[in-house]
């Protein structure tokens, strides 16, 4: 297998940031900011970003990525391909994974969090096997990281207090054992930013994390954990979660809103790209303190 940068980050007690690009012009400033900080990070797109936003297609994102890629610093990842999507429709997911692999995506994520445990295991097994045959890592999700659905959500306080939808450690152990997935996206208080209607422009709620659960999940599964909904989580929670086993953090809302706001204000894609560059560099340097992490991650190249 190609080097697994998330496992490398875990060994070093660091995390790989994965920046979602719902608009193609975001790819260039993200890559440049990551390289300028001498960091290692992912450019990533989820199925809903080419369906509901404007990343257009798997091909369009890959072309844009390989146009600007700094192979020492940046990595192309396919985020959330759901078994059942946010509108409750079944997705024919295998062809998408085959296409992504052929296009040079360096890791992939299957999201079976909306189906039963058994069906999630089955789907993840299939995708992990396909990914491993191609020599790339596979991420999966267990538990419900809410936020992408259009309907109303329970109040955050209620969600956190009850731990409803949080990943269960014993289930996680069985899941990882049976699927062979490489990284596990967990629900421990993190939520996705809203993507529909007026809510999508609102500031995200400040999420908290059940850090004890993070530690339990990391120990029992023995694989790196992934935190989705990284925007809007308090810094202290994030840094502790990283020491306890989170080795990949997805960031979507924060850089999307920077892009959209700048574009609205100036009408200029170049200005909006500047806003994305600044926000990405700030996140790496000031928020996550991951400047220079290139030095501790092994070499990696496109397959
Ligand atoms: Zn996510």
Q: What distinguishing features does this structure have?
A:
single chain, 303 residues, alpha/beta, binds zinc ion
Would you give an account of this structure?
This protein is an alpha/beta fold. The chain is 44% helix and 14% strand. The protein contains 12 helices and 8 strands. The chain has helices spanning 5-11, 27-36, 47-51, 58-68, 93-103, 117-133, 156-162, 169-179, 211-221, 235-244, 253-266, 269-287; strands at residues 16-20, 41-46, 74-82, 107-111, 138-142, 183-186, 225-227, 246-251. It has an 8-stranded parallel barrel with strand order 1-2-3-4-5-6-7-8, surrounded by 9 helices. Helix 9 (211-221) runs parallel beside helix 10 and helix 11 runs antiparallel to helix 12 (269-287). The radius of gyration is 18 Å and the shape is globular. The mean pLDDT is 93. Bound molecules: zinc ion. Zinc ion is lined by residues 80, 145, 192, 228, 250. Zinc ion (ZN) binds next to loops.
Protein topology:
Elements: H1 5-11, E1 16-20, H2 27-36, E2 41-46, H3 47-51, H4 58-68, E3 74-82, H5 93-103, E4 107-111, H6 117-133, E5 138-142, H7 156-162, H8 169-179, E6 183-186, H9 211-221, E7 225-227, H10 235-244, E8 246-251, H11 253-266, H12 269-287
Parallel strand pairs: 1-2, 1-8, 2-3, 3-4, 4-5, 5-6, 6-7, 7-8
Helix pairs in contact: 2-4, 2-12, 4-5, 5-6, 6-8, 8-9, 9-10, 11-12
The chain binds zinc ion.
